[in-house]
# Entry
Amino acid sequence: MKRALKYTLCAVASAAAIGVVAAPRVRPLLNASPAPKSAVASHANATAPLKVSSVVVHTEPFAETVTSTGTLRAEESVDLQAEISGKVVAINFVEGARVRKGDLLVKLNDADLRAGREAAVQREKLAVLQERRLGQLLPEGYVTRGEYDIALNQANVQHAEVALIDAQIEKTEIRAPFDGTVGLRYISDGAYVNVNASTSSPTRVATLQQLDKLKIDFAVPEKYAGRIRLGDAIRFTVPGGDHAYQGEIYALDPRIDNSTHTVVLRALCPNPEHRLMPGAFANIELSLKQIDDAILVPAQAIIAGLNVTNVFVVSEGKATPRAVELGTRLQSTVHILSGLKPGDVVITSGLQQMRAGLPVVTETAAIASGPA
# Structure
């Protein structure tokens, strides 16, 4: 019994000694906690390439179409107004009727002017008669050259006075300056037409529009300015209509608007049936010259920023951002003006996770342009 107790005490002492020696080495292992599974997974994901879809850039023929909005204007348009103040004594047009150039539309009272003209005509006749008499006596020496010159000058003055009154009488007549359609009238017989803008607004008589042809004013981005030529065709529609109209560019503003960075164009379209009206809104398509080596990429590959537009391309197995300049946007693709070249591999999926230098594994697909 004593021997057994002795063996037990020896075993306990040996175990205690071993514990004291091994404790410094075992304690760090006991205190260390196993790595979380999420950290291990994150490390694995950080090194694993991201699987993405992509397309290989190539060139192809492309007829670029620029869309814009514009406004229809009459080929010629004017607000009819009198040149002098006076009372309306005759209105010779029907609202909405066609008139010819030179037709008398409105007549103002000119009784005082005609009376003054009659007196001026009589003075003119007397001055002319006096000039002729002295002209006959001048060669005989009965009058001097100075006396004849005075008579001639007086005759010329009377001619000018009659011409001045005729010009004033002409101002009492409002005539059509060109062939067109007259609009609503804003005066009545007996109304007083005022042209003194310092006291009130000049009286508006009516409008006159030439509608056989219409102008279309619209603007396009400045990057297209060098590719537009006079004579280029446009196609446009107006709200509420399903018919497409044709026009032709005949003028362009020779400057770029500083605020909008656009160039203003003007086209002309026939309107023989007067179906189109000035002031209407127009949706315009302008087809530019075909590009034989255009680059198109899927629209989902475009990443728009505040100051720059990017795509991600694959370079040495990693994603690399590339700044691009956009042209026309089609239904499913975008025309790239600069920034890409044939053979580049453009990433089209996983863009929300994309960053520069991220390893990627790509699956290439064909580019489908789709209708414009």
Residues 86 and 193 are 5 Å apart (CA to CA).
